[in-house]
Each structure stands twice: as C-alpha cells, then as structure tokens.
Amino acid sequence: MLLELAWRNIWRNRKRTAILLVAVVIGIWSMIFLGALMRGIADQMVTNGIDTLTGHVAVQERGYHEDPAIENRIADPGPVRAVLEKNLPPGSRWTARVRVPAVVATARHSTGLTLVGIDPETEKTVSFLGKAMHSGRYLEEGDTGGILVGDALLERMETRIGHRLVLMSQDTGGEIASRSFTITGTFRGEMESTEKSFVFVNGKAAREMLKMGDAVSEFSVILPREGETEKVAALLRRKLAGESLDVLTWKERLPLVSAVLSLYDQFIFLWYVVVFVAMGFGLVNTILMAVFERMREFGLLKALGMRPRGIVGEVLMEALVILGIGAAAGNVLGILSVLALKTRGIDLSSVAAGSEYAGLGRAIFPSLAGTDLLLANAVVFVLGAVVSLYPAFRAARFTPVRALAKT
User: Cα–Cα distance between 31 and 269 in angstroms, integer?
Assistant: First the structure.
C-alpha cells in the first residue's frame, strides 16, 4: 500500500519530480564516472610504475636503492637465482639486470641516462619493453653490439637506426669505461620521460664493458597476482636472511605512488559525500514542500487511524522511489560512459609533459571497480533515507484538527 501511495504521490507534480530526478541522475553519474576516472588514474600510475623496471618485488644489494652505483652490485647472484627458482608462486616471472648511471653520446650530442643490461628473453616478459617495440628489431640473445633506445631519445640525439652510439660509465675499478653500440631498434614508452631515461643492451655486453664478471645490479620479479606481493617479499627475506641483500616491494620503491593511492581512496569517498550533500539539499527541499502541500491529506490519514510510523513510512517510501529511479538511470549512464572510454581512453597527448609529473601516460582509461559502484549507491540510499527523515517526522507530527483546518 505504501509503495502504491508513494508512486501516485511523486507524480502529482511531474515537473518538480522530473527536476529532482535529473539532479539525482547527474549526481550518481558523476559519482560513478569521476570515481572510475580517479581509479583509472591510480591503476595507471601503479601499472606504469611496475612495468617501468620496478616489478612487484626486487632483490638488490643493500644500499643500491639509495645509491644505484656499480659498487652496490650483487657480486654472487647464484644464491638469489636458486631461491627465486624454488620459492616463487607458479606463473611468476623474473629477470636479472645490470642497471647503472651512464652517459650516451654521438658526434654532436650527449646526455645522461640509465644503462640497462638485460637478458632479452626474460626481460620482455617482465617489463614494458616486450610490448613497447616501435621500429627496428628487438635485441637477440647473442647480440652484444646492439642497443635499444627510445623514440624521444633518438630524436633528441638526432640519429637513427643503424647509426652508432657511445656509452660511458664507471666500471668496477673506478675507471671510465666506454663502448660503441649500433642502434638496432626503438621503443615507445607510456611516458616520454621513459624513452629519454633508459637504453637497453645485452646483459653480457654490459658486464664486459663494466668488468662486472657474473655480477648483476638487481633481480626483478613479476607475480601472477599483485595481492601476493607482501607475502612473497616476506618469504624471500627469510630465505635470503644470510645475505647482504634488500628485498623491496613496489610500494617501498615507489613511495609517492603508494601515498597517492591512499589519497585517491579518500578523495573518491569525499567526492561521493560532497555530491550527495548538494543532491541531498534538493531532496529534502522537494519532499518538505510536498509534505506541507499535503497537510490535509496527512491529517485525514491520521483521523482514519494511520499511526505516525505509517506516515513516516509513506514519506520515506516516496524518497526511496525517487532515489531508486534516479539511481537506476544514473548507474546505466555512468557505466555506459565508462565503457565508451575504456578502449580509446581520454587523450592527454597535448599535455603529456605535464601529465608525466603525475606518473600518467598519453591517455587515461577509466576503471570501474565493483566496490566503488556499491559505495556510490550505498551513499545515495543510506544518506538519502537519513535526510528524508526530517520531512517524514514533520509530516508525522501533524495533528488531524490542525491539518484538516489547513486551507
């Protein structure tokens, strides 16, 4: 009966109800869409950070994270290899790298960057490099004279594929080592800064150039599930307790990203509350106006024997019906908006230089999480019911004599 009464009452003033429904739909749409946009930004920051040579877990010589110099290398990588082969979850992937500061030069230009010596086969399964090749060819297993550079660096150095670059860095003896490499291919990163910051050569060539022997700078691990990161890191710390090594998670290596993720979660919830406060004022005002317009009706209902809780229930039912219709339309509109941008994203090419400071790539792809969707609807319905209590209680306090005397 309450549902039937509520349905009839909300359409007595169609214009007012329509305006309120539009406000509810826009409010819920903005909660879902902007929440998905913020979630997409956060997910992209994490993905870019992990793919850009960070991994879920890294094993490094103690002190390398603070000072990535050649002195802080893993001189004997054998024990680490054995632990990784035996203790990682099924589906995990890992690789060893040489990673040191260097200078790259041509006849006309030079710049500082990071020299990365890789195992070509394992590296392409662990980092962005496997899916970032843009032109030329990827490094081959026995190719000790080739080098991969980013598109942006190629343009900056005014060179091209097939030409040579000279790499210079400090070797294990403290001397300046240099070697010439031929550009075999270029890669394109999610961020232009990545293309300018790294060059890749075969790990064997890097170790020979730097006189490292079998030493490496780090081991990088990608897990099948990000949620296993802390568990696996704790296991590796126990297994490598006798070694002078650090086992670091991506959150420890990317503290800024971790802080931003926590801030985003709070911001999303705060945004939901702000949107609802604006929407709640309209809801309370509309229902309160309807209540005072129907004082005689409520007085008659009480004179016929309806208890105050029945009046409260009827007014709350009207609010919930409006919220239900608005939520349904807002959810559909929000989900469709996210799906429309999920494949092509929001292009940031025109502001790429600025977006890179936030760890973003050339596009933002909204990501709709089920928890965010449930939270948005819960905020609307729970707080909607709470703010509707005020006009409901006002309606329940009308006395039959006073209400029926109202003209």
Answer: 9
**Are 281 and 377 contacting, i.e. CB atoms less than 8 angstroms apart?**
no
Tokens of 68: 């990535």
* Six-digit token string for 149: 């550079």
| Paired tokens of 219 | 């081991």
Measure CA 264 to chain center.
9
* Sole residue written with tokens 């998670």: 249
Of the candidates 216, 194, 60, 88, the one whose C-alpha atom is nearest the C-alpha of residue 131 is 194
- Residue 213: HSE in the Cβ half-sphere, 13 Å Cα cutoff: 9
pLDDT tens digits in sequence order for the chain, 407 residues long:
667 776 776 677 778 778 878 888 888 888 888 888 888 888 888 888 888 899 999 999 999 999 999 999 999 999 999 999 999 999 999 999 999 999 999 988 999 999 999 999 999 999 999 889 999 999 988 888 999 999 999 999 999 999 999 999 999 999 999 999 999 999 998 788 888 999 999 999 999 999 999 999 999 999 999 889 999 999 999 999 888 899 999 999 988 888 877 777 777 778 777 777 777 777 777 777 766 666 666 666 667 677 777 777 777 787 788 888 888 998 999 899 888 887 777 766 655 554 555 555 567 788 888 887 888 888 778 877 777 777 777 766 666 656 566 55
The pTM for the full model equals 0.75
Long-range pairs for 316-320: beta carbons < 8 A, 24 or more residues apart: 316/385, 316/388, 316/389, 316/392, 317/2, 317/3, 317/5, 317/6, 318/6, 318/9, 318/10, 318/287, 318/290, 319/283, 319/287, 319/384, 319/385, 319/388, 319/392, 320/6, 320/381, 320/384, 320/385, 320/388
Q: Where are the beta strands (DSSP E) in 188-258?
A: 198-202, 218-222, 245-249
Residue in the structure block whose two tokens are 């490099």? 129
CB 10 within 8 A of CB 318: yes
Tokens of 404: 């029926």
Contact (CB, 8 A) for 197 and 151: no
Residue 291 tokens, joined: 């209540």
Q: What amino acid is encoded at 167 in this protein?
A: L
CA dist 99 and 145 (Å) reads 17
Residue from 243, 253, 201 nearest 84 by CA:
243
CB atoms within 10 A of CB 282: 15
